[in-house]
Amino acid sequence: MQKIVSNCDFALALNIQIILLVLFRQATNINVEIVNNCLNNVNLMKKVDFLVIGSGIAGLSFALKAAQYGKVLIVTKSNEDESNTKYAQGGVAVVVDESDSFEKHIEDTLIAGDGLCDEKIVEIVVKEGPQRIQEIIDYGINFDKNTSGFFDLAKEGGHSEHRVLHYKDITGYEIESVLLKQIHENKNIEILTHYFCLELITQHHLGVHVDKSSEDINCYGIYAFNTELNDVEKILASVTVMASGGAGHVYSTTTNPVIATGDGMAMVYRAKGKIRNMEFIQFHPTALYNPGEYPSFLISEAVRGFGGVLRRRNGEEFMYEYDKRGSLAPRDIVARAIDAEMKKSGDDFVYLDITMRKKEDILTHFPNIYAKCLSIGIDMTKDFIPVTPAAVSYTHLTLPTNHDMCSCRGWAGD
Ligand SMILES: Cc1cc2nc3c(=O)[nH]c(=O)nc-3n(C[C@H](O)[C@H](O)[C@H](O)COP(=O)(O)OP(=O)(O)OC[C@H]3O[C@@H](n4cnc5c(N)ncnc54)[C@H](O)[C@@H]3O)c2cc1C
Questions:
Q1: What percentage of the chain has pLDDT greater than the value 70?
Q2: Which residues of 60-175 form beta strands (DSSP E)?
Q3: 10-28 and 263-270 are packed helices; what angle lies between their axes, rounded to 10 degrees?
Q4: CATH code of the domain covering residue 194
Q5: How many CB atoms lie within 10 A of CB 313?
Q6: How confident is the prediction for the chain on average, in pLDDT?
Q7: Pocket lining: 388 vs ligand 1, CB cutoff 6 Å
Q8: Is residue 61 lining ligand 1, measured as CB closer than 6 Å?
Q9: Confidence band for 305, pLDDT divided at 50, 70 and 90
Q10: Is there a domain that residue 174 lies in?
Q11: Do 72 and 206 belong together in one domain?
């Protein structure tokens, strides 16, 4: 979903770069001086047709498609499965049920987008949804089914229909594992782990002046830091795809894994590419309140879709005071309401109550969340769950809405 375009603030990008460098050093204990010294005489590591930065759903699904047209190299900064994708819980919204329709899904999305959506993009995403889902089902993903063999569809905030396909409460883990299996079986694809992409190589590195007004920026590949050999390497490619995910870790409370530091946005910005919508960060309303845990553990919205109700510390339900959809209003409305309640009460959390559902149903749908809560002494079939909002990974490195895939030749955003 694309929204009203606004240019990223230079200061923000600089802040991101500084934060990145700090996190870079923290995350990998890399001596930045080595990096700088190396940049001048850099070994040519590889030359490929398609270079993909990132091994989440965006990078892996692109790689499987591109492998039909040439050799693909995926570089990823940590283990191959470490990504936001791996931690995704609730599932993927798509129109598959006969009682549902594209029109309903489009309308729900436009309402949740509060007038900020690009309707053309919403239409494409919604209408192409079933086809994209069929592709990953053909790769081997097992979305849950009910006793009659139909998809067991969940409901999430802002959706007027049950349309969320899921695999228990670990949908992302299922998607990441199945896509990686396909990647390993594909002889046209290689994946390099612990390769930290630092810089997009453009004609700037050949001494040609490039600035924001430059129309024909070419991307030749990347400089990447091989964190195992402590060395910077150069990888050249005809097409480079930035699929490096979001930037949840610029916030102190986030459910994102530590790899989500916004590197791709900073690299594209530094290379004078266009980045948009940087002001849009989504706060998920219900991260588990567990002081000292970082990143936070998410309590999926599907728990509210399963009947979960948000309550004050005294047990009072409060969301209908904010929205007629109650605890299943869109996330931004629910997160703001919880923030308002916490500011009014001075509490650090509110409660999520799912005790009205049968224990076996809760364990069938949310085994991972149940186990996590139990590990800190909360039995969600009997107790209320303390929750608080947290940043999630939905920052979009969106591209010009003329469906032209890039602001310079040679690379595409995720
Ligand atoms: C806890 C949680 C629950 C979620 N639940 C849902 C859900 O139910 N439904 C839903 O639709 N979405 C959900 N999301 C959001 C969803 O996971 C993301 O939107 C999606 O996975 C993003 O995919 P991606 O491939 O763009 O990025 P990611 O999956 O984050 O992959 C990015 C990849 O880039 C790599 N990378 C980053 N920087 C560099 C660098 N400098 N060099 C090399 N590699 C780099 C990372 O290591 C990673 O492999 C959830 C997110 C979280 C955190």
A1: 84
A2: 72-76, 92-93, 164-165
A3: 130
A4: 3.50.50.60
A5: 14
A6: 88
A7: no
A8: no
A9: very high
A10: no
A11: yes
